[in-house]
Structure to design on (577 residues):
């Protein structure tokens, strides 16, 4: 009875979360008078920073006729939109004061013609209003804290989740106590604002797929796949690496890369143990293949989903324009990995061992055929919906949550065991990391760096491609690629409009896609895939350290970024497109 309660309770939670993610955001209310009738005019506009990114939660105060008392006060929305419905008409002058902890500008004073229009009952759209940066104390608090957390993680002084939570706690403490008691310049952001930076789609996607994978894993399918992989490779580690890279790449092109690695990690651990190899020597090339392979399709990486929606790049566009470049990068990556781990692979078991073969074959027996059939049916349908979800306006997280709901309701499982298999530490780390990165976005650090890149590029297409791919790639070493890609989209749009030939073929958007995804391979903290894989491996008793990962990943990332840049220039400049 208790197990049934937990199973259906968790299923209901997944279903509610899926509906919440699927439903559209409510439309903003328009300016109305006290009776609910649109009778008085309104002032509207968009707040943006120097890179054209929207500025949210700025406070706008409306003043009439040089009075000291405000007429109305509103906050800008997430998209930078603000709207002030006039409670009454002005007599002589209208002024709008705008305040934000990290941006500044002089008050907006309407001219006589604009005031006259308001008095005649006409609403005014002031268009884009740009605010400059305020590099106050809060900016330096967020920047120093972020760098400190990166160093702590890099030198492994504390667990990743603990370090990220510590950094977020410092930002909150400085904001709550310093910003309120000492100086407003110490304000970074409050808890409510921090929550807006968490990418809940990623969180729920990972959680939903962890549930789905845990159901399939209990059937013994992964042990069966490990046995088959051992047979296919004939016990040769180098052949095995190539096979795993190909499988991971194909899966990442159809699924998101986080889901792919959720499926591959259990298989890889089984194979590594069987061949007497360090699991990290197989996991690291899989992580990099996953991040690279997902670039070839719209649904392969979260950053591609962001870029595709912003720049109207379709599934087929990514497939046609990036696949060959992805293949070339994968070849370079695989050759480097085989060279780097040549001594490790040579020490591993070689050839088919009859004893080991028999042991793997015994472990490969399916434990519950009925559950396997049901769970595989759900999984296949999940993959199909992942592929067609764009047409249904269904984000991958919704698909994952619905799949988890069906698993819990239709497939008999031990819900207590399944909950224990969900890597809650990794999920907490994701949330803390999103908030920590959000703090440096909030104060304008990421936008400042992006603006510098824009100044360097100018109007040169070749410089634009290399700066976007390599610049974003190097930033992705330590900055989560999802928020970084989102912050760079307006910069890429600006550069595309100022560089001849870049707007029509969208080459810089493809460069952003390659830079963000390939650059995420640089450091362990560079992408959700890396962190999730490290978390699962550590729980299994095979920790993947920052330094161990970087020894392989940094040179591979630099090489693949160069290959990606050269491919884009060849594709659009030589072949045309």
């Amino acid at each position: 009875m208790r197990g049934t309660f937990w199973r259906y309770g968790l299923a209901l939670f997944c279903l509610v979360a899926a509906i919440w993610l699927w439903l559209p955001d409510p439309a903003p209310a328009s300016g109305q008078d006290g009776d609910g009738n649109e009778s008085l005019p309104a002032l509207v506009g968009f707040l943006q920073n120097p890179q054209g990114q929207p500025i949210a939660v700025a406070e706008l105060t409306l003043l009439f006729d040089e009075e000291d008392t405000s007429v109305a006060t509103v906050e800008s929305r997430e998209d930078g939109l603000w709207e002030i419905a006039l409670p009454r008409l002005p007599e002589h002058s209208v002024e709008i004061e705008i305040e934000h902890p990290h941006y500044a500008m002089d008050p907006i004073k309407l001219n006589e013609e604009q005031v006259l229009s308001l008095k005649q009952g006409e609403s005014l759209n002031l268009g884009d209003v740009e605010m400059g940066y305020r590099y106050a104390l809060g900016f330096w608090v967020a920047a120093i804290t972020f760098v400190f957390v990166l160093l702590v993680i890099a030198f492994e002084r504390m667990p990743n989740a603990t370090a990220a939570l510590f950094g977020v706690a410092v930002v909150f403490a400085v904001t709550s106590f310093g910003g309120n008691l000492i100086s407003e310049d110490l304000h970074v952001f409050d808890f409510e604002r921090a929550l807006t930076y968490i990418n809940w789609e990623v969180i729920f996607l990972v959680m939903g797929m962890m549930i789905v994978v845990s159901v399939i894993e209990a059937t013994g399918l992964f042990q069966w796949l490990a046995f088959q992989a051992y047979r296919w490779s004939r016990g040769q580690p180098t052949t095995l690496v190539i096979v795993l890279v190909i499988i991971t790449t194909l899966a990442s092109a159809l699924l998101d890369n986080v889901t792919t690695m959720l499926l591959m990690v259990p298989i890889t651990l089984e194979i590594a143990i069987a061949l007497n190899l360090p699991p990290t020597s197989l996991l690291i090339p899989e992580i990099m293949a996953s991040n690279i392979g997902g670039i070839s399709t719209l649904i392969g990486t979260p950053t591609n989903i962001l870029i595709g929606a912003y720049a109207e790049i379709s599934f087929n566009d990514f497939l046609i324009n990036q696949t060959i470049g992805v293949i070339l990068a994968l070849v370079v990556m695989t050759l480097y990995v085989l060279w780097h781990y040549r001594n490790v692979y040579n020490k591993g078991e070689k050839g088919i061992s009859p004893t080991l073969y028999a042991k793997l074959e015994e472990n490969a027996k399916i434990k519950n055929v009925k559950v396997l059939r049901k769970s595989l049916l759900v999984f296949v349908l999940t993959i199909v919906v992942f592929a067609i979800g764009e047409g249904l306006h269904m984000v991958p997280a919704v698909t994952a949550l619905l799949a988890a709901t069906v698993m819990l309701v239709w497939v008999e499982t031990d819900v207590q065991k399944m909950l224990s298999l969900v890597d809650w530490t990794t999920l907490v780390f994701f949330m803390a990391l999103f908030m920590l990165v959000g703090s440096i976005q909030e104060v304008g650090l990421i936008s400042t760096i992006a603006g510098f890149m824009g100044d360097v590029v100018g109007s040169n297409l070749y410089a634009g491609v290399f700066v976007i791919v390599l610049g974003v790639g190097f930033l992705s070493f330590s900055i989560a690629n999802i928020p970084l890609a989102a912050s760079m989209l307006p910069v890429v749009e600006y550069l595309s409009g100022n560089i001849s030939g870049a707007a029509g073929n969208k080459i810089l958007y493809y460069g952003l896609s390659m830079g963000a995804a390939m650059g995420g391979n640089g450091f362990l903290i560079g992408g959700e895939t890396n962190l999730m894989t490290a978390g699962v491996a550590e729980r299994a008793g095979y920790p993947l350290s920052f330094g161990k990962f970087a020894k392989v990943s940094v040179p591979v990332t630099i090489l693949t970024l160069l290959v990606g840049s050269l491919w884009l220039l060849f594709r659009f400049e030589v072949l045309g497109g």
Notes: The first helix runs from residue 2 to 22. Residues 42-133 form a domain with the Immunoglobulin-like fold (CATH 2.60.40.10).
